[in-house]
Amino acid sequence: MFNPKNPTFLFSLNQGDGSRGFLNPREPSPWFPYHLAYICTKEGNKGRGIATELINEMIVLTKGKLSLHVDLDNRRAKKLYNKLGFKTSYYRMVYSDE
Q1: d(C-alpha 51, C-alpha 22), whole Å
Q2: Which of 36, 61, 69, 71 stands 20 to 30 A from 8 (CA)?
Q3: Residue 43: strand, helix, or coil
Q4: How far apart are CA 94 and CA 65, in angstroms?
Q5: Domains in the chain, please, with CATH?
Q6: Using an 8 Å Cβ cutoff, are 66 and 85 in contact?
Q7: What would the pLDDT profile of 36-60 be if each residue is shown by its tens digit?
Protein backbone atom coordinates (compact mmCIF):
# COMPACT_ATOMS: atom_id res chain seq x y z
CA MET A 1 0.00 0.00 0.00
CA PHE A 2 1.41 3.38 -1.02
CA ASN A 3 1.45 5.99 1.75
CA PRO A 4 3.08 9.32 0.78
CA LYS A 5 3.53 10.22 4.46
CA ASN A 6 5.63 7.07 4.96
CA PRO A 7 7.73 6.62 1.82
CA THR A 8 9.46 3.47 3.08
CA PHE A 9 7.43 0.57 1.74
CA LEU A 10 7.64 -2.54 -0.40
CA PHE A 11 5.89 -2.59 -3.76
CA SER A 12 5.56 -5.91 -5.55
CA LEU A 13 4.21 -7.22 -8.83
CA ASN A 14 3.07 -10.81 -9.04
CA GLN A 15 2.05 -12.28 -12.37
CA GLY A 16 0.05 -15.45 -12.92
CA ASP A 17 3.02 -17.42 -14.22
CA GLY A 18 4.92 -17.01 -10.95
CA SER A 19 7.15 -14.18 -12.13
CA ARG A 20 7.56 -11.32 -9.73
CA GLY A 21 9.47 -8.19 -8.97
CA PHE A 22 9.95 -5.96 -5.96
CA LEU A 23 10.66 -2.28 -5.39
CA ASN A 24 11.76 -0.84 -2.09
CA PRO A 25 11.80 2.97 -2.07
CA ARG A 26 13.53 4.64 0.88
CA GLU A 27 13.61 7.93 2.75
CA PRO A 28 13.07 11.10 0.72
CA SER A 29 15.97 13.41 -0.10
CA PRO A 30 15.98 17.20 -0.56
CA TRP A 31 16.15 16.69 -4.34
CA PHE A 32 13.61 13.93 -4.85
CA PRO A 33 10.84 12.98 -2.44
CA TYR A 34 11.27 9.27 -3.25
CA HIS A 35 14.41 7.22 -3.80
CA LEU A 36 14.25 3.72 -5.27
CA ALA A 37 16.54 1.75 -2.98
CA TYR A 38 16.16 -1.76 -4.39
CA ILE A 39 14.62 -3.46 -7.37
CA CYS A 40 14.82 -7.14 -8.16
CA THR A 41 13.04 -9.76 -10.20
CA LYS A 42 12.74 -13.49 -9.73
CA GLU A 43 15.67 -15.45 -11.16
CA GLY A 44 15.08 -16.28 -14.82
CA ASN A 45 12.67 -13.39 -15.47
CA LYS A 46 15.09 -10.86 -16.92
CA GLY A 47 13.95 -9.31 -20.18
CA ARG A 48 10.24 -9.92 -19.58
CA GLY A 49 9.31 -6.29 -18.80
CA ILE A 50 8.74 -6.78 -15.07
CA ALA A 51 11.22 -4.11 -13.95
CA THR A 52 9.82 -1.73 -16.57
CA GLU A 53 6.30 -2.25 -15.28
CA LEU A 54 7.36 -1.82 -11.65
CA ILE A 55 9.31 1.36 -12.30
CA ASN A 56 6.59 2.86 -14.49
CA GLU A 57 4.10 2.25 -11.69
CA MET A 58 6.45 3.97 -9.21
CA ILE A 59 6.86 6.94 -11.56
CA VAL A 60 3.09 7.33 -11.62
CA LEU A 61 2.70 6.88 -7.84
CA THR A 62 5.45 9.40 -7.06
CA LYS A 63 4.37 11.83 -9.80
CA GLY A 64 7.84 11.50 -11.32
CA LYS A 65 9.69 12.58 -8.17
CA LEU A 66 11.90 9.49 -8.13
CA SER A 67 15.64 8.94 -8.00
CA LEU A 68 17.78 5.81 -7.92
CA HIS A 69 21.36 4.55 -7.86
CA VAL A 70 22.85 2.02 -10.25
CA ASP A 71 26.18 0.20 -10.24
CA LEU A 72 28.57 1.53 -12.87
CA ASP A 73 28.98 -1.89 -14.48
CA ASN A 74 25.24 -2.69 -14.65
CA ARG A 75 24.79 -1.87 -18.34
CA ARG A 76 21.41 -3.58 -18.61
CA ALA A 77 19.92 -1.53 -15.77
CA LYS A 78 21.43 1.74 -17.04
CA LYS A 79 19.95 1.10 -20.49
CA LEU A 80 16.51 0.49 -18.95
CA TYR A 81 16.67 3.56 -16.71
CA ASN A 82 17.72 5.78 -19.63
CA LYS A 83 14.88 4.38 -21.73
CA LEU A 84 12.43 5.20 -18.95
CA GLY A 85 13.63 8.82 -18.78
CA PHE A 86 16.19 8.80 -15.95
CA LYS A 87 19.23 11.02 -16.47
CA THR A 88 22.65 10.88 -14.80
CA SER A 89 22.91 13.72 -12.31
CA TYR A 90 26.11 12.91 -10.39
CA TYR A 91 28.69 10.24 -9.66
CA ARG A 92 29.03 8.94 -6.13
CA MET A 93 32.57 8.26 -4.99
CA VAL A 94 33.22 5.54 -2.40
CA TYR A 95 36.55 5.20 -0.61
CA SER A 96 38.47 1.96 -1.06
CA ASP A 97 41.92 1.22 0.35
CA GLU A 98 42.55 -1.51 -2.23
Answers
A1: 8
A2: 71
A3: coil
A4: 25
A5: 11-83 (3.40.630.30)
A6: no
A7: 777 777 777 788 888 898 889 888 8
